[in-house]
Amino acid sequence: MPSSVMPTPKTTASAAVSTVGLRKSYGDKTVLDGIDLRIPAGSVFALLGPNGAGKTTTVQILSTLIAADGGRAQVAGHDVAASPEGVRAAIGVTGQFAALDDLLTAEENLLLMADLLRLDKREGRKRARELLERFGIADVAGNRAATFSGGMRRRLDIAMTLVGDPKVIFLDEPTTGLDPRSRRTMWETVRSLVAGGVTVFLTTQYLEEADQLADRIAVLDGGRIVAEGTADELKARIPGSHVRLRFAGTEEYERAAAALSGAARDDENLALRVPSDTGMEALRALFDRLDAAGIRAADFSVHTPDLDDVFLALTGDGSTGTALHVKETLR
After folding, report:
1. What separation in angstroms does the CA of 201 have from each of 147, 182, 193, 204?
2. 26 C-beta neighbours (distance < 10 Å), count
3. What digits encode the pLDDT tens for the residues 215-252?
């Protein structure tokens, strides 16, 4: 169906970013094969996927850098195809590598961006000072960007993105190459942006990053969204939740193994791995079974899948059977 007549969801008007049936191919390679998204304003949305899944292509389409082959997209109330100027005026984009002029100082980089956005001189200087303070680089405002560490470069890069006071910011793998401390500093920066009402569209390969930041997460694989939800919702749908019970003596351990058929044994550590829903009701039922048999565990721990497990299962990098089962379950 041509994009000009494709229906728009009723909920699109209240979304900061929305797509319907978004498609993109390069030659005979389909990169995006009908992507539907709806991202509420003032939230963090994370798009996960393996290399080549189409994450950067999605950002490029939504930021008007490239055109889609089909489907429809709106950003900040503007149609990406019909009103690219409106989209560009409402967004900021930070790519995988900081887009700084290393010969300029931090302040000069910000003033250059203000000039490009056609702010008047007074407003540009005011905005630069505010952003230098906000991102903790006011004390090095007169230093050339070439002297900055990776974390400082990233902060300056995002500060430049904010010169135009965008409503939506696209962060394409913003913490690539940063050390753990700089990455956590960047997380705090993202949280502060959202607290100020900005919508953040994040692509990342760091699953902990999505877990920490995102209100909702979508997993992109094979050109399609194979799952979407909160981090907890995605984890809850992946097989593998279990309770690990450890026992003080061999006799207690053997009695428990007999009572809990299907539990995986760890004879060396006198421990059993019991597949289980890890909610309170399931835990209570498990311990009721042990009590009824007169068995007491020395200790226990609860294990649930993390986003690594979700990612491997959904993108087919785990066992093929598991991946297919999970994809069908989540559709």
Report:
1. 29, 20, 12, 10
2. 9
3. 999 999 989 999 999 988 888 777 778 899 999 999 99
- Which among 243, 241, 258, 319 has a CA at the least distance from the CA of 293? 258
Cα–Cα dist 224/31, whole Å: 9
Rounded Cα distance between 111 and 117, Å, is: 10
pTM of the model: 0.74
CA neighbor of 219 nearest in space, from 24, 37, 11: 37
Give the three-class secondary structure for 16: strand
Distance CA 127, CA 129 (A): 6
The model's confidence at residue 83, banded by pLDDT at 50, 70 and 90, is: very high
264, β-bridge pairs: 273
DSSP 209-277: HHHHH-SEEEEEETTEEEEEE-HHHHHHTSS--EEEEE-SSHHHHHHHHHHSTTPEEEGGGTEEEEE--
8-state DSSP, 26 = E
Both tokens of 54, joined, read 């189409």
Token pair for 39: 């991202």
Cβ pair 3, 81 in contact under 8 A:
yes
Token pair of 24 as six digits: 């993109």
| Nearest-5° Cα angle at 30, 21 to 37 | 30
Which stretches within 91-242 are classed as H helix?
106-116, 121-134, 150-161, 180-195, 207-213, 231-236
Sequence letter at residue 187? W
Reduce the DSSP state of residue 34 to 3 states and report it.
Answer: strand
CB of 35 closer than 8 Å to CB of 6: no
Task: Please check whether residue 237 is in contact with residue 258, taking contact to mean a CB–CB distance below 8 angstroms.
Answer: no
